[in-house]
User: Which sequence fits this backbone?
């Protein structure tokens, strides 16, 4: 006996040590909340973005917007704040480029040529007037980009260097902005890095809220089930052990803590609670004097059914291995491993604690509170026998509705949708989308087969036409290309009226010192200064040139004057062979993104020769690709889970029809999920797509337990009594089990993140559907079909027929 | 004994007199690189991180008098900008665009802008080191071959600081590191590849500027050079820029 006690103490001490050591590893967790963590590095869009960033710099812009409730933000005091912020941000580490009204240079014209001057000179009222005039001179560049059309919002566009510490940079910007207090200006940070950082900041915070809430719900459930505190403490110890161990393993193995993997400890608390309830309910069920012997019997009786329940749940998680997304596969492996740990904790640590907590057995056995009040056996038996037609009708409505509404479910991975619409991040972004160019970015990189071809007037004119067409769409805020810069330089430098004496000879100081002997040629005036020259020079005659090549040369000479400042649009200032088009969108709904991306691809493909290359990248392209992968992942994992579960049941019963019957509650759970998603407008995203296979894994337990009980009791009772007898025992257990898991998942409703709270809701619905269909549709069908496997009696079914909870 | 002390004192004084200060070193660096007039034929080879190269060729004529420098830059390649000429007369800048066959005045300062898409900025093309009155110079270290001097510009500049390794024999820079305004982030490195003697003076014949963050680099090679020429002032006029005639 002493040896047993020592062993139990050692086991518990070991578990506590592991728990503490695991929790100490939390600091080592590497958090990555970006969608980049989900998308495979080898995927085409990631490669495209790397390619674009190598040629044109970072694609992820941070925007600090300043909005005012006054008629205009263009006041001396507001511009002074804008200037100070711009300068302070420009001096920060990791900032590659900053642009705002106060540091932008304006291209103006003088009597003799080009006048590059500051857009805002910052010297009083005159400066304001000049600023307004200059903004009107070149609205294509400034409006929507640096200032809103109604003058109430201005923005500071910040490009981080590729190796910048974005977290630190955003912190510095936020600290800087916080030091400004103005009654008339509202500051907001917008952009993908901001959203990513906000998720990262909330991730651990969310976990810190969810774990206590889920823990509280589990405590409540345990107390309601057993009416005493000791089982609550013992069960919680097991759950904390298994959840902590998995967190420790994640930290030690450097598993990235993503939106998916963060759910592992929470899910283990919920799923694991069912196993502890199972053991505890059997322990408290009978009065006994020797806990050691009693618990040995309880474990012996329940090991097999628990292992089978765990196997099916783990199978549901393992189905994520079919996903193309690494964090989903990691999530699947970790959860499966976690289920195993939870099972082992329930089968070894919990019994050890029970032996030590009750050395002299349990003298007073109380009826389980929930069980006492919950006795739906008669009602369920009645529904099964008398309600076949209503069941059939309801099922048909359920099935038809699901089939009809399934295609209306939308997929989407817009990270902004993780936040509630009332959050400041969403509201700031919406305001920016409304007033400025839009926060969604798609980029088009066009690569030509020879240098400078992308500067051909024909191509640039077509590019201008497409850009204009796109900008007419309400959802497109702005299309940024090199075109306005060429037009502006042409407008300024192209205006001349007088004749000129020029030489066309080549100059070489070292090769032809007799330069002075070159003939003078008289050139004719070739256009009227009054003519609007804000255009791509595409008519050689109009510019006194002979060919398209001359026009390309003219454009290149314009570009020479920009001194490499157009590196966001062309990959070389003189001989570019790649050109970038940046399309800002104020609508990033997946369906719209898909439409606009196809349209962009089609229209741009029409203006480029077949030997050129066109790729589409940017944050929204990643989002679109991720959406497709999430949909694919959902389909694969769903099929995978159904197949694994089908095979498990087939192996267990050696019957195809048993496997088919076992899938019925799973299908109802799936229908519940998809119908709710369609009716409530919930998108299939990186969190909700984890749900279906998980619901199959947990839902099939109910079918297995019901089938086992039905099989066992049908050998004892008359056919018309079997269902009632099953309902009295296993039926109630299924309901309690479903209630416990549902209650746990209800805790997810308190998540900061919309997809996680929706996942909680959908899981609850799926559990209700799975448990109710197990207790209504399944028995009704069993009674109607009377499948042959019910009459077979096997060792497995004997063992599985044991109840799974009180 | 007194005599010995006196000798030692004199020798010590001589040593101090002969020792270079960071300012005197940088003055010499500026002096050896300057001339009253020069004509240079330069080849710039731009190399991106993937190893792809592009070539740019220019010729420059410079003339300095009374502390004022006039420069004319003629672009020879690529073909699209061939014969584009750029005239700098102290604070005035003019450009001749061959496609338009016109001269235009440009009122702009593009110190930080990239020169022809290379890793050199316009300021780098002017000079990569600071004179004694332009920056605070500190001798960081000294070896048998070189001085290592940190220069922090007095007024706002493209760079926060530079560190220059100066060859003790020629007083030409062997390596220059350019830092961000935070004075800790290295932006670019200028490495001397080849020295040569032309017209009895040491010159840096080939040097490479590398941008640290992108791995992009530009080699600048002097193909031909002439110094202290009698250049006609007519070269540095808008008339020459426009007509090609003196």
Assistant:
């Amino acid at each position: 006996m002493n040896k047993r006690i020592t062993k139990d103490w050692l086991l518990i001490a070991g578990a506590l040590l592991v728990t503490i050591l695991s929790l100490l590893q939390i600091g080592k967790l590497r958090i990555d909340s970006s969608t980049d963590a989900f998308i495979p590095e080898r995927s085409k869009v990631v490669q495209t973005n790397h390619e674009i960033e190598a040629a044109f710099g970072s694609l992820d812009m941070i925007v600090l917007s300043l909005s005012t409730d006054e008629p205009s933000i263009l006041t001396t005091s507001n511009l002074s704040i804008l200037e100070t912020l711009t300068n302070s941000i420009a001096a920060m580490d990791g900032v590659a480029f900053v642009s705002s009204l106060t540091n932008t240079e304006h291209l103006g014209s003088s009597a003799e040529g080009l006048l590059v001057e500051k857009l805002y000179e910052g010297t009083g009222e005159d400066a304001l007037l000049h600023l307004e005039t200059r903004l009107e001179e070149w609205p294509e560049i400034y409006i929507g980009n640096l200032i809103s059309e109604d003058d109430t919002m201005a923005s500071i566009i910040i490009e981080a260097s590729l190796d910048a510490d974005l977290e630190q940079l955003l912190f510095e910007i936020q600290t800087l902005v916080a030091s400004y207090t103005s009654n008339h200006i509202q500051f907001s940070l917008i952009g993908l890095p901001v959203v990513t950082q906000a998720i990262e900041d909330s991730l651990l915070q969310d976990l810190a809220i969810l774990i206590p809430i889920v823990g509280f719900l589990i405590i409540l459930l345990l107390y309601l089930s057993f009416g005493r505190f000791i089982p609550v403490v013992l069960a919680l110890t097991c759950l904390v052990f298994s959840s902590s161990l998995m967190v420790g393993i994640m930290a030690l193995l450097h598993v990235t803590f993503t939106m998916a993997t963060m759910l592992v400890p929470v899910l283990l608390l919920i799923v694991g609670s069912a196993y502890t309830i199972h053991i505890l309910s059997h322990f408290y069920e009978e009065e006994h004097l020797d806990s050691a012997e009693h618990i040995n019997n309880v474990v012996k009786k329940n090991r097999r059914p628990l292992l089978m329940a765990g196997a099916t749940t783990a199978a549901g998680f393992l189905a994520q291995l079919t996903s193309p997304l690494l964090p989903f596969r990691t999530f699947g492996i970790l959860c499966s491993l976690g289920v195993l740990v939870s099972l082992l904790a329930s089968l070894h640590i919990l019994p050890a604690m029970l032996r030590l907590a009750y050395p002299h057995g349990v003298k007073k056995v109380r009826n389980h509170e929930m069980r006492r009040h919950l006795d739906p056996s008669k009602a369920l038996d009645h529904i099964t026998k008398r309600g076949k037609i209503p069941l059939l009708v309801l099922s048909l409505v359920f099935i038809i509705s699901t089939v009809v509404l399934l295609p209306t479910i939308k997929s989407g991975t817009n990270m902004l949708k993780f936040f509630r619409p009332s959050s400041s991040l969403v509201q700031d972004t919406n305001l920016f989308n409304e007033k400025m160019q839009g926060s969604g970015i798609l980029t088009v990189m066009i690569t030509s087969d020879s240098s400078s071809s992308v500067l051909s007037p024909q191509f640039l004119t077509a590019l201008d036409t497409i850009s204009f067409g796109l900008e007419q769409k309400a959802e497109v805020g702005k299309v940024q290309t090199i075109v306005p810069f060429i037009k502006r330089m042409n407008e300024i430098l192209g205006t001349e009226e007088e004749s000129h004496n020029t030489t066309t000879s080549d100059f070489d100081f070292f090769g032809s010192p007799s330069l002075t002997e070159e003939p003078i040629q008289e050139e004719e005036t070739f256009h009227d200064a009054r003519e609007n020259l804000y255009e791509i020079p595409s008519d050689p005659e109009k510019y006194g040139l002979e060919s398209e090549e001359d026009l390309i040369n003219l454009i290149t000479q314009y570009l020479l004057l920009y001194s490499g400042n157009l590196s966001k649009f062309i990959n070389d200032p003189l001989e570019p062979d790649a050109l970038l088009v940046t399309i800002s969108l104020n609508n990033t709904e997946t369906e719209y993104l898909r439409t606009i991306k196809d349209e962009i691809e089609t229209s741009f493909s029409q203006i480029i020769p077949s030997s050129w290359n066109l790729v589409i990248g940017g944050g929204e392209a990643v989002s679109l690709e991720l959406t497709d992968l999430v949909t694919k992942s959902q389909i694969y994992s769903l099929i995978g889970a159904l197949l694994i579960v089908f095979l498990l049941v087939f192996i267990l019963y050696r019957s195809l029809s048993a496997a088919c019957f076992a899938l019925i509650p799973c299908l109802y759970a799936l229908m519940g999920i998809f119908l709710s998603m369609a009716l409530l407008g919930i998108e299939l995203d990186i969190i909700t797509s984890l749900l279906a296979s998980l619901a199959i894994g947990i839902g099939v337990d109910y079918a297995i337990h019901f089938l086992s009980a039905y099989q066992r009791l049908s050998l004892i009772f008359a056919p018309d009594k079997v269902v009632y007898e099953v309902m009295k025992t296993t039926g109630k257990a299924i309901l309690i089990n479903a209630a416990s898991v549902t209650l746990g998942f209800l805790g997810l409703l308190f998540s900061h993140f919309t997809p996680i709270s929706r996942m909680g809701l959908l899981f609850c619905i799926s559990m209700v559907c799975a448990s109710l269909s197990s207790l209504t549709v399944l028995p009704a069908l069993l009674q109607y079909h009377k499948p042959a496997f019910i009459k077979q009696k096997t060792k497995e079914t004997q063992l599985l027929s044991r109840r799974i909870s009180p | 004994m007194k005599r010995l002390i006196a000798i030692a004192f004199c020798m010590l004084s001589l040593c101090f007199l002969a020792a270079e200060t960071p300012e005197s070193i940088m003055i010499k660096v500026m002096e050896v690189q300057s001339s009253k007039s020069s004509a240079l034929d330069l080849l710039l080879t731009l190399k991106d991180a993937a190893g792809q190269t592009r070539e740019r060729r220019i010729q420059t004529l410079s003339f300095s008098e009374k502390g004022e420098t006039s420069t004319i830059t003629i672009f020879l390649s690529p073909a699209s900008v061939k014969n584009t000429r750029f005239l700098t007369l102290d604070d005035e800048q003019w450009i001749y665009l061959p496609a338009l066959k016109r001269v235009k005045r440009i009122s702009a300062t593009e110190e930080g802008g990239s020169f022809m898409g290379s890793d050199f900025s316009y300021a780098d093309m002017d000079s990569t080191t600071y004179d004694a009155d332009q920056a605070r110079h500190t001798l960081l270290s000294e070896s048998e071959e070189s001085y290592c001097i940190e220069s922090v510009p007095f007024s706002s500049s493209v760079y926060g600081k530079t560190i220059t390794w100066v060859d003790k024999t020629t007083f030409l820079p062997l390596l220059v590191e350019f830092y961000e305004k935070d004075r800790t982030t290295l932006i670019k490195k200028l490495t001397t590849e080849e020295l040569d003697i032309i017209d009895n003076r040491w010159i840096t014949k080939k040097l490479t500027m590398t941008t640290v963050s992108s791995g992009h680099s530009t080699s600048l090679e002097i193909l031909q050079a002439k110094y202290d020429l009698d250049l006609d002032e007519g070269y540095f006029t808008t008339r020459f820029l426009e007509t090609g005639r003196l």
